[in-house]
Amino acid sequence: MITNNSNQNVDSQSEINRLNHINQLILDSVAEGIYGIDLNAKVIFWNKAAERLTGFTLNEFEKNNLHELIHHTNPQGEHVPIHHCPVYYALNNGESLFIKDDIFWNKDGSSFPVEYTVKPMLEDGKHVGSVITFRDMTEKLQTDQLILEWEKLSAVGQLAAGIAHEIRNPITSLKGFLKLMHRSGRVKDEYVSIMDSEFERIETIIQELLTFSKPTVTQYSQEDICEIIDQVITLMEPHALLKGTVISANITSRPLKIRCIKNQIKQVLINLIKNAIEAIDRPDGRIQINVHSRSNEIGIEVVDNGPGISNEVLKELGTPFYSTKEKGTGLGLVVTKNIIRNNHQGTLHIESREGIGTTFTVILPQRFNK
Length: 370
Description:
This protein has 370 residues and is an alpha+beta fold. The protein folds into three domains: 31-136, 2-Layer Sandwich (Beta-Lactamase), CATH 3.30.450; 139-215, Helix Hairpins; 217-370, 2-Layer Sandwich (Heat Shock Protein 90). Helices cover 48% and strands 24% of the residues. β4 and β5 form a beta hairpin. α7 (225-242) runs parallel beside α8 (262-279) and α8 packs antiparallel against α10. One of its GO terms (molecular function) is ATP binding.
């Protein structure tokens, strides 16, 4: 009987070892990095991909804290205390979590962009730890950047095709007036005024094209979006009041910090408010700026009670050189969308009802890799 029990124990241990080996082979065959931690945040398993991506082996975690080895500093270069770490928050609360943009640190002192998920480990329905699966996003971000550059070049090409037509018209006018003055030998004030207007139009088109296409100096900083909005409203109020329009702000909480290029976000808000002021054709015009924060994003709505925009026109908005204004170039909204999407990884949505008004909604992430 003792021999049978002994053989059964050996067989059971052998089966456990075999299953553990198979589990490890499965883990090591996965391209994503995977590690598991118990409720004391001790690493209990760690696959080959995680070892390759970080340079750390499982043995190196026996005397070192996981967080302090691979997750001690955020993308902004700020130290992350362990009690602020989302992984440990999920571990302590038994929750699932997905983080889209973060960084992990390598053993050689370098960092790499990651996205990761945290899932609770359950044993007989009891929370016993968490499993973290992470992916190196370096190649994806590089690919995204190449696509972004291609899109910008494509847009600039589209602008260049349109600009040839847009500039040709005023140049033709200028040449005609120069010939008239040359033949008559006189300079008429009327001619000078028209020529000056044509030069201004050319200058406006070129300036907006340069703003859109030139490389941006990426001087990102942490800013309070509420302060930026206050400054823009102060700047735009005199222009609005001349048309009998009132600008107001509805901000749910202060401060609301965001990583951005401050002057570019100001330019976006100025463009949207200026468009709203020029669109309103009633003596009781109103423009309201609504600001709210949710899920690490900030939403900014510019709402007006103007005439609204038809569905046909709405489809064309943002197309270079398409404008509903008599002297518009259509580049203002192109520049605005470029700043929001390409430089701040945000989105711009437009909703409008004829006879009621228009709402431009800017959604900006509070943090992003750039």
